[in-house]
Predict the structure of ATP-grasp domain-containing protein.
Amino acid sequence: MITSVLVANRGEIARRVFRTAGDLGIATVAVYSDADADSPHVADADTAVRLPGNTPAETYLRGDLVIQAARDAGADAIHPGYGFLSENAEFARAVIDAGLVWVGPPVEAIERMGSKIESKELMAAAGVPVLSNMDPDAVTDFPVLVKASAGGGGRGMRIVRSQAELAGAVEGARSEAGSAFGDSTVFIEPYLETGRHIEVQVMADRHGTVWAVGERECSIQRRHQKVIEEAPSPLVERTEGMRERLFDAARKAAAAIGYEGAGTVEFLADESGRFFFLEMNTRLQVEHPVTECVTGLDLVALQLSIAEGAPLAAEPPVSRGHAIEVRLYAEDPAANWLPQSGALHRFEINALASFANPAGAGIRVDSGVVSGSLVGVHYDPMLAKVISWAPDRTSAARSLAGALLRARVHGVRTNRDLLVRVLRHPAFLAGDTDTAFFDRHGLDTLAAPIADKDAESLSALAAAIADTEANRAAAKVQGRIPAGWRNVVSQPQIKRFESASGEHEVRYRITRDGLSGVEGVRLLASSPTRVELDVAGVRRVFEVARYPGIACVDSTFGSVTLTVPPRFADPADHVAPGSLLAPMPGTVIRVAAEAGQRVDAGQPLLWLEAMKMEHRIDAPVTGVVSELTVSPGDQVDVGRVLAVVVEES
């Protein structure tokens, strides 16, 4: 019997396992890096052990430190979560050799599925349809996909459309794979421009029972990472006989390697219902909540039960209704999905349940952050998974979009508006989703803010009025005099803000007769945190929150973040024309140019590594690199000048 479990992970998945373990009466142990000292997963655990350092290589990827932490804390089992060491066979073997219970599949199963090259050969022999691997030296037909053999989550993956790109893509994939997984092996397979990403959740016990619990569709992706997942799959629902064939292939895959525990068999399918094996993830998936919502199962509880040797029932429960999950990321989709970092001042999503299925139709939130959390640069920028369950797919999409719109997420830019637009898109609602969804429907359109420029202007007005109310409330003398009061009126109140669409200059006065200077708008009520306006006869409510340098305004128009520009510019902030600034804190991992070199617009100059991904920095114009201020291995802060390119005249 497991009495105490250490989760060899962080953030959301650690909190998820702790929730179930607590329900079962199992004591919990967290491990944490220095960067995660104040993380909610540390507070959730009964016991916590520090892993000195910040980066994954120093902390969560150090299996020896994790096992020693389990010993020190008195844990008798280790749950790996997902990512990090979850599919590392050597770590699993070391856990077992240390006399601890490994909450995962047999070491041999991890080894056989750990290499995507060998696993495809094994699946082909078991009768599971696969895509062929290609020799890098013999590739002639494009496009192809370069993939990390030991990887997942889109890391170590590159699309290549020409022979000229191949060598650089292989080098980049190897570098990223080695950094993320400690294994730089890559392989190449044909790339299908469009397709459906369908996966089957399997559960297997040590007594020979194998469940195909249900399928999930995860076709809407960015950078080969899933963004929206759902169960059941719209494609499978409308394709006769496809579910039976998928489940049969998944069970064959699990049986071929003597699988035990929770795993996922992933397939790439076309619109006709044909499918091909991609990989088997020998762990719990990020998107497991949608399967839990439609089946009523607790997959973590089943993992723990199977690890203790308990048998599964003969058949899994029947699925009901529809569940959709979105991954809420701290990122800017319009800027090539650039990850964001910084203080998360406020994080509130109205949900019926956290880390558990809602009792009825409603919202579940699995999150690794809370209000006040710091979104750092060392780990994945996912803030939360927001999941809806409803009797039908349309209702689930509507409910989820509404919950996202009403969420209060202040301090970092997110993909929230993009998620809402996708959930409301006619193609999504029709079930026409594939891996080219963003390309087909235009990322620029989907990533546009929900609040348009007019909505931003009204939000800026509300922020200005709320700021005035806050100043009046804080006044130490004459606090009862109306804000901005003048015996002799000379000019209106003027406040300036910057937003996604540009600068907003708000000019207004508040007199005995109310708000003046803003046509078509009447002020109904105001406080430092709430402003009610009559806009062309319609009552609008704006909730306003102020933080250092920014104001966040939430309304039915959408959420608007306004930057408050400094009254006086600091000369030290001036940078030379053509300067390339670091978009985030990170590490310079490669440099492809030198001072004095002529470069073309769009030519890569260097690569930064941050938040588990590589980010390419390109020349903005054709010209000459007049300055290159960094070298491989340098740590840079956001806004640092990396290089200067002087445009050709």
Observations:
- The mean pLDDT is 92.
- DSSP finds 17 helices and 39 strands in the chain.
